[in-house]
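Dear H.,

Thanks for agreeing to be a second pair of eyes. The structure we're designing against is below in token form, covering all 263 positions.
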């Protein structure tokens, strides 16, 4: 990992010491209080392009010590946002066997078992995510809540069945490309929108957040894999489980959360 953790000496209470933006006033994640959201009828449905035809190049799944991240081709892009945003990667946040709650955003104080983030950069203005990541209009992240369902989710199986191959930080595995649209909920019309930040250091306030209202479902055994297989440590040192990779909810301050639907 890159020096920071979620707990302990380099835990989230101390991130600001090394990453000053983490102490900013427009930080993520947040608790979305539906009684305070503002309905904005001009918010259009999110339109992923190229998510269902990712090409024949495989994806790379990496244990980066903080999450399981999947590289995505820049042929995947989002329409329906103020600019054209191209996909860079997706990753997950989850709890542990001891703490089932593992989403970063909360809905009326409720934490879901896990949350998917798909990170995109503003391709109208920047050449890649590393140029875009610190700019106020640089990034757009889609957030999807997970619920427990009765059966395995075949789309998430593309990622979850590979976790045994990336148990340790730094390990990667090639994943045959699959339809990424199926990782999102059916309904892309109903979502919350607010301006915030990366939820990990360096916490740049560069993210236009879109958090879908409808969750996706994975099975209990699929969630258990996510909670138990990965280590945040590299092979050869005392292993530490990778879990609870969740930042506390941050103050909304003077920001407004918008909804694309009546709630
Ligand atoms: N929750 S979150 O804010 O969406 C979020 C994470 F939680 C998260 F762990 C990551 S990470 O896996 O890269 C590990 C630490 O940055 C990212 N990376 C983004 C932003 C940082 C630069 C960068 C460069 C290339 C690809 C992705 C990214 C992240 F955006
Ligand atoms: Zn994330």
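And this is the sequence the design step returned. I haven't edited it by hand at all.
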């Amino acid at each position: 990992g890159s020096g920071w953790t979620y707990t302990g000496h380099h835990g989230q209470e101390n991130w600001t010491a090394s990453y000053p933006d983490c102490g900013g006033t427009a930080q993520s994640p947040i608790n979305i209080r539906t009684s305070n959201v503002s309905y904005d009828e001009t918010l259009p449905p999110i339109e992923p392009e190229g998510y269902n035809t990712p090409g024949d190049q495989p994806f790379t799944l990496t244990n980066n010590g903080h999450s399981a991240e999947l590289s995505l081709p820049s042929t995947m892009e989002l329409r329906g946002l103020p600019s054209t945003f191209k996909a860079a990667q997706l990753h997950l946040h989850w709890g542990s066997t001891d703490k089932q709650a593992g989403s970063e955003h909360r809905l009326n104080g409720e934490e879901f078992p896990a949350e998917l983030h798909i990170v995109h950069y503003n391709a109208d203005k920047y050449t890649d995510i590393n140029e875009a990541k610190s700019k106020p209009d640089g990034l757009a992240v889609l957030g999807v809540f997970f619920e427990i369902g009765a059966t395995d989710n075949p789309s998430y199986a593309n990622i979850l069945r590979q976790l045994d191959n990336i148990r340790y930080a730094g390990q990667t595995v090639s994943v045959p490309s699959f339809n990424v649209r199926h990782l999102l909920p059916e309904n892309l019309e109903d979502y919350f929108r607010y301006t915030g930040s990366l939820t990990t250091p360096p916490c740049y306030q560069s993210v236009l957040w879109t958090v879908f209202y409808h969750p996706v479902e994975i099975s209990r055994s699929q969630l258990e894999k996510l909670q138990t297989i990965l280590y945040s440590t590299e092979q050869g040192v005392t292993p530490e489980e990778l879990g609870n990779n969740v930042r506390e909810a941050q103050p909304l301050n003077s920001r407004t959360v918008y909804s694309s639907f009546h709630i």
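Two observations from my side: The longest helix spans residues 220-228. Helices lie at 15-18, 129-132, 154-160, 220-228.

Warmly,
E.
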